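Budget justification aside, the reviewers requested a transparent look at the raw inputs and outputs of the sequence design task funded under Objective 1. We therefore reproduce one unedited record. The lines immediately below are the structure tokens for a 116-residue chain.
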């Protein structure tokens, strides 16, 4: 069993910042990648940012330069620093971990609301 616990969502004004955290625990022997995805009402879940075990990162074009994903010391915790937030960033944000053989596991999601 793998558990992902997310925190850090909330309500913020446009231009503000939030930091999301996700801690993975359970039967994890190695991790291929960790990432954040988001889903707004009526839309499909989409990648926000992802970091591999080697430290490579990729971001959605809409968040480049504003969001930063990190995984200090390659531990089982991933962060998403979100700056210069916009109303269009409003969504439920999901943490995901890619584990060899077991595939992708998802967190329960945390709401981020950006008011204009």
């Amino acid at each position: 069993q793998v558990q992902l616990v997310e925190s850090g969502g909330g309500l913020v004004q446009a231009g503000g910042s939030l930091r999301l955290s996700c801690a993975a625990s359970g039967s994890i022997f190695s991790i291929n990648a960790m990432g954040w995805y988001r889903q707004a009402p009526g839309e499909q879940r989409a990648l926000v940012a992802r970091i591999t075990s080697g430290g490579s990162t990729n971001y959605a074009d809409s968040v480049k330069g504003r969001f930063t994903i990190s995984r200090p010391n390659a531990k089982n915790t991933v962060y998403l620093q979100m700056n210069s937030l916009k109303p269009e960033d409003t969504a439920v944000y999901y943490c995901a971990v890619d584990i060899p053989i077991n595939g992708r596991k998802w967190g329960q999601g945390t709401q981020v609301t950006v008011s204009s």
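Residues 59 and 116 are 24 Å apart (CA to CA). The first strand starts at residue 2 and ends at 7. Computational costs for records of this kind are itemized in the attached budget.
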